Amino acid sequence: MPKHWYNIAADLPVPAPAVLHPGTMQPVGPDDLAPLFPMALILQEVSTEREIEIPEPVREVFRLWRPSPLVRAHRLEKALGTPAKIYYKYEGVSPAGSHKPNTAVPQAWYNAQAGIRKIATETGAGQWGSSLAFAGALFGIDVTVFQVRVSYDQKPYRRALMETYGARCIASPSNETNSGRAILAKDPNHPGSLGIAISEAVEVAATNDDTKYALGSVLNHVLMHQTIIGLEAIQQLEMAGDDPDVVVGCTGGGSNFAGISFPFLGLQLRGGRKRRIVAVEPAACPSLTRGKYAYDFGDTAHLTPLTKMHTLGSTFTPPGFHAGGLRYHGMAPLVSHLKELNLIEAVAYHQNACFEAGVLFARSEGIVPAPEANHAVKGAIEEALRCKREGKSETILFNLCGHGHFDMTAYSNYMAGKLVDQPYDEKELAMALSGLPAVSA
């Protein structure tokens, strides 16, 4: 297991744009972030050191499931009739069933070291919420989770898992915060969004001195914690005598994609060979392929700093498709920056095509992927079929970021033909983008 996380900021050919304070439009400093995060995480957020040590107490917890397996998908290759070699890094072996504990455990530990005993957060599908609930239980922290209402209703067993670990789970928008009440006053049946849930969690942390906030994706330190995935994969592929030509990950906020791809990109940026890095996102919430690269708020109530990212607009509410972890209006600033530098590619697929890929994977490899992970499966299959058409024997690596055991309602709907490819509202997108903050940078 790696002893250090990898920080891609050290190898960027052009530094990422600064995070701005929405009041002053000046770069934020540690004091601006102190109400939300412990100082250790703030320092990681702004660090440009290439390696940051993983604390031994964190590695001790990681040993419950890490290193996670790297698997050659022989049966999938055979089913596709492709000359390509397909590998997947399987993160569903964690206690919460996804990659999210890779950052939940260190975030909880750093908060506990700072004397924090309460954390507020948001979650979509519930993988992040259940992961932070698990980590909070380990380090004696009370966790409150605002879950996007449509996912709260779609995935009751994720909620049950959070509560089993000891967290309190609240459907968002809720009556517990000013931002939630304002949304409900306009629409009592609002389906919620990650932007709204973030607003509620940030509001709780900002207005209570004994509570901090934790985010499961998007931020630099979160992406860095996830690089343990790619760092392990590099070592495992060396053991297998192989090296990927294509690296694929699904993208919502960007954490699992960064986790699998950043260490490989780092090798390239330090003079290693070039690879294709492919981000796969949902067509119903396509921030990388349809969003504007601009400064925007990370939440709907505009309580967060401004970050430059690919965004659909902070007020954009995506349709209630089943990959709840990918229903975010913005993309991680670092991932967005890499897209602008043409170091990564992005494609978008509708959910029925992704579920079709997930079912093929399940029937070939035996693992039922989470709806989010189905996007990566779809991306890898498309690359393998391209190799078949071109007669190329390339090596494809993708991140299978979680299992779908809590998502079987979605699979039942797919099998029954009830899963609908939901387009986003073009008028709402135009309105959300028209409301982007004016920044001269």
TrEMBL record:
Residues 63-402 form the Tryptophan synthase beta chain-like PALP domain. The keyword Amino-acid biosynthesis applies. GO terms for cellular component: cytoplasm. InterPro entries: Trp_synth_b-like, Trp_synth_b_CS, Trp_synth_beta/beta-like, TrpB-like_PALP, TrpB-like_PALP_sf. Transmembrane segments: none annotated. Pathway: Amino-acid biosynthesis; L-tryptophan biosynthesis; L-tryptophan from chorismate: step 5/5. Its EC number is 4.2.1.20. Coiled coil: none annotated. Keywords: Amino-acid biosynthesis, Aromatic amino acid biosynthesis, Lyase, Pyridoxal phosphate, Tryptophan biosynthesis. It catalyses: (1S,2R)-1-C-(indol-3-yl)glycerol 3-phosphate + L-serine = D-glyceraldehyde 3-phosphate + L-tryptophan + H2O. The modification N6-(pyridoxal phosphate)lysine is found at K100. Its cofactor is pyridoxal 5'-phosphate. It comes from the Bacteria. SUPFAM superfamilies: Tryptophan synthase beta subunit-like PLP-dependent enzymes (SSF53686). GO terms for molecular function: L-serine hydro-lyase (adding indole, L-tryptophan-forming) activity; pyridoxal phosphate binding; tryptophan synthase activity. Pfam families: PALP. Belongs to the TrpB family. Tetramer of two alpha and two beta chains. The beta subunit is responsible for the synthesis of L-tryptophan from indole and L-serine. NCBIfam families: PRK12391.1, trpB_rel. This is Tryptophan synthase beta chain. The lineage of its organism: Bacteria, Pseudomonadati, Pseudomonadota, Betaproteobacteria, Burkholderiales.
